[in-house]
Specification:
There is one protein chain. This protein is 55% helix and 9% strand. By secondary structure, the chain is α/β, with parallel strands linked by helices. It folds into two domains: 169 residues, NAD(P)-binding Rossmann-like Domain (Rossmann fold, 3-Layer(aba) Sandwich), CATH 3.40.50.720; 249 residues, N-(1-d-carboxylethyl)-l-norvaline Dehydrogenase, domain 2 (Orthogonal Bundle). Strands 3-2-1-4-5-6-7-10 form an eight-stranded mixed sheet, sandwiched between helices. A two-stranded antiparallel ribbon has the order 8-9. Helix 1 links the parallel strand 1 and strand 2. Helix 1 crosses helix 7, helix 9 packs antiparallel against helix 10 and helix 11 runs antiparallel to helix 12.
């Protein structure tokens, strides 16, 4: 081990930890990794880089770091984070900085932040997006905690982050658990976008009868157009990847039962807590839940057999699907940003939505060209409640919603489920409805439970003896 003090330490040398460690070292900082598994630190030791160290000893790890220490944990969310904190805490000094780079549930981050702050230890929840590739070559990072703590580590994170127009895709997000909260919503939007893309696949494959080659061409063209994004890019790649013997797409051999780690569910749950509608995200979570019931779905398929014929396809129809998908993407982002705005006010985070859109433009899973437009909207009007009402987006939504409705009608006739796309249209219709039939619901509640109601013609609350 080197006798010189090390700039930055990471606990947990799994895929993300190892790659982020090497990324930071590539950007001119000395680093040290800690993991109890000797096999995980061996590749780091074998690099021979003088700026990269690794150990299985917590004492060696802590004694190597420059004071005040800057330590990031990249371990599974939950009990593992608490276990690392419990192990390191007795050996930390006042002013040291401890960061959680995993997908921790934001109330857990608040609890840890309060406990460690009371002990004089700086704490940050740092949302990191970009997967293995992003960690190695430049992720998007969402750190929350205190501005003072960010100042300690900002230059390191900014050097390691992805860059768009020479600007790092990281910034101080806000107080306490703001970073983990914004990452949670990022993941909820990710669920929604992935579900929407999969619905376009289902519609074109089962409803239009497009071949795998046709679908490859469609997603290739969309990746270079208005829908240009990381998820569209990888979708096009997936449709080009065959088995080693060239017999079939690997995609066609993958079981249609999706896994999830809970961040989408957390987003839906919190949206309901804040009373912020997020139906496209909700539907994306629901479909993953439904996909797990594979045996039941197969049995039901035999009972309710779909015998509809594929529709006639031309370039105009494919363009309508592209517009429907673009419409739905905008509504999914609108729901996520509305959640962050509401949470920032409810939890006193102080989040700047223009900054969030800015750092999501590169490195992260949901990066897309349209985020630059969202950034401009929030920069020009930080108080805007929903990006859908911006003049530039409103015109596009009015135009594209027609194609979204057209595609949904085809899906309904062909018995092809398009729940996220339908939720996107319903969200749009609800948001632009100056009147909703909820007055009837209020009357019903007052009828059976004397819950009272408000009137349109006078102030106060009222109750009627409906019988």
């Amino acid at each position: 081990m080197s006798t010189e003090s090390v700039d930055f330490g990471i606990v947990g040398m799994g895929v993300m930890g190892k790659n982020l460690l090497l990324n930071i070292a590539d950007n001119g900082f000395s680093v040290i990794g800690l993991d109890k598994d000797p096999e995980k630190i061996a590749p780091l030791v074998e690099t021979g880089q003088s700026s990269v160290q690794a150990t299985t000893s917590a004492n060696e790890f802590l004694s190597s770091l420059e004071s005040p220490r800057k330590i990031m944990m990249l371990v599974p969310a939950g009990a593992a984070v608490d276990a690392v904190i419990e192990e390191l805490l007795p050996h930390l000094d006042e002013g040291d900085l401890l960061m959680d780079g995993g997908n921790s549930y934001f109330p857990d981050t608040d609890r840890r932040y309060q406990m460690l702050t009371e002990k004089g230890i700086q704490y940050m929840g740092v949302g990191i997006s970009g997967g293995e590739e992003g960690a190695r070559h430049g992720p998007s990072m969402m750190p929350g905690g205190s501005a003072k703590a960010y100042d300690m580590v900002g230059p390191i994170l900014e050097a390691a982050a992805a860059k768009v127009d020479s600007e790092p895709c990281v910034t101080f997000i806000g107080k306490k658990s703001a970073g983990n909260y914004v990452k949670m919503v990022h993941n909820g939007i990710e669920y929604a976008l992935m579900q929407l893309i999969s619905e376009s696949y289902h519609l074109m494959k089962s409803g239009f009868g497009l071949t795998d080659t046709d679908l490859k061409a469609v997603y290739d063209s969309w990746e270079t157009g208005e829908l240009s994004s990381f998820l569209m890019e990888i979708t096009a790649d997936i449709f080009g990847k065959k088995e080693e013997d060239g017999s079939d797409l690997i995609l066609n051999r993958i079981l249609d039962s999706a896994r999830q780690k809970g961040t989408g569910k957390w987003t839906s749950q919190n949206a309901m807590d804040l009373q912020v509608p997020a139906p496209t995200i909700d539907m994306a979570v629901m479909v993953r839940d439904m996909s797990a019931h594979k045996k039941e779905r197969i049995a039901a398929d035999a009972v309710f057999k779909n015998e509809t014929e594929p529709v006639q396809v031309d370039e105009e129809l494919i363009k309508k699907v592209e517009h429907a998908l673009h419409f739905s993407f905008i509504t999914a982002f609108a729901q996520g940003f509305s959640m962050i705005k509401a949470a920032s006010e409810a939890y006193n985070y102080g989040v700047n939505l223009a900054d969030v859109a800015k750092i999501w433009r590169g490195g992260c899973i949901i990066r897309a060209d349209m985020l630059e437009e969202f950034r401009r909207i929030f920069a020009e009007d930080p108080s805007i409640n929903n990006i859908m009402v911006d003049d530039r987006l409103a015109g596009k939504l009015v135009e594209y919603q027609k194609d979204a409705r057209y595609c949904i009608k085809i899906g309904l006739d062909a018995q092809i489920p398009l729940p996220a796309m339908m939720a996107s249209v319903s969200y749009f219709d609800l948001y632009k409805s100056g009147w909703l039939p909820v007055n009837l619901i209020q009357a019903q509640r007052d009828y059976f439970g004397a819950h009272t109601y408000e009137r349109t013609d006078k102030e106060g609350t009222f109750h009627t003896n409906w019988k």
